[in-house]
Amino acid sequence: MRQTLQVSALKWPLVMLVLAVGPSVALAQWLGYPTPGIPRLPSGAPNMKARAPRTREGRPDFSGIWFANVPAKDYCREKDCVQEERMAREQINIGIKLPGGLPYTEWSKQQMVGRRIEGEREKDPHTFCKPPNYPRAWTLPQHTKVIQTPQEMVLLHEFNAAYREIYLDGRPLPKNPNPTWNGYSTGHWEGDTLVIQTNGIRDDMWLDIQGSPITESAHVTEKLTRPSLGLMKVEISVDDPKAYTKPWSVTIEMALQVDTQMLEEICLDNEQDVKLFQ
Which has the higher per-residue pLDDT, 181 or 5? Predict the structure, then answer.
């Protein structure tokens, strides 16, 4: 069951946006309706430690509704508790768990300085109701629904009814692609791990609220594993020589959401914040 959003002292524009679109979220018709096929404990609660499901072909089945695991409150700083918004800490800083932080190039450092200046911070594309871009979208405070077939995986994201296609039919990545918000993605299996390769990402994308860049030169690898029914791990590796001095990787844990449904969240519907940024 969904939890009510709690407001903290967060001062980031993204949080203002999250709160602003709250009233426009449609009332759900099936919240609390039991998800079929879920192993359950004698109490009726879902057994999240049960074995992960598999497809007819014997592959791990990632189908379901997912949300980034809510981190412990020991990451709160100066009453700026992102956790109260049920937002992954990697949404603030995607490299928060990397020793020494992200390996920014000088170009990236200059970009970061500009993006942190008061008045420029509000240029975060997500703040202006632009589409959620992967891999950042894994950590946004909305749900992702995975639909998996042998030939394709589709990710449906609650924010602006967005979607992403990942082709599993053996096609190669395009050469010199026209850059897009999510780029172009193909996947293949390495044992029980789904390896997703992506290129063709736009040059002006942000990876987190603090403005960590990702550019057209980036090659992103995501490795999906499902150790149990209730847990999916997404290892994100970014090789972007324009933005970073060396490749880097982080792992995001996603928690399965059951007995619920996707909610319609159209950012521009009753949006009241953008005018405050002018």
Answer: 181
